[in-house]
Amino acid sequence: MIGLGLEPEGSQCSRAGCREASTWRIEWRNPKIHAETRRKVWLACDEHVDFLREFLAARDFPLEVLADGGATTPGSGTADARGRA
Q: Could you tell me how many helices (H) and strands (E) the chain has, helices first?
């Protein structure tokens, strides 16, 4: 489930109701209330990574999508406010 900004436990997808193991990390922040150094983390399975990325990008939150092992995925990297690399 999408939490209150706490680091998700284990490796379960952060999408509400999903029990799948995560394969992606989405690191993001709300620039209106968080300092540039503050990062929140949502975990995502392959099925929900695009949904969660689009949810954050629609709110103009800076975000970065990483493989759950920490490597930046090709074409993701640091994204602009719309989630585009």
A: 1, 3
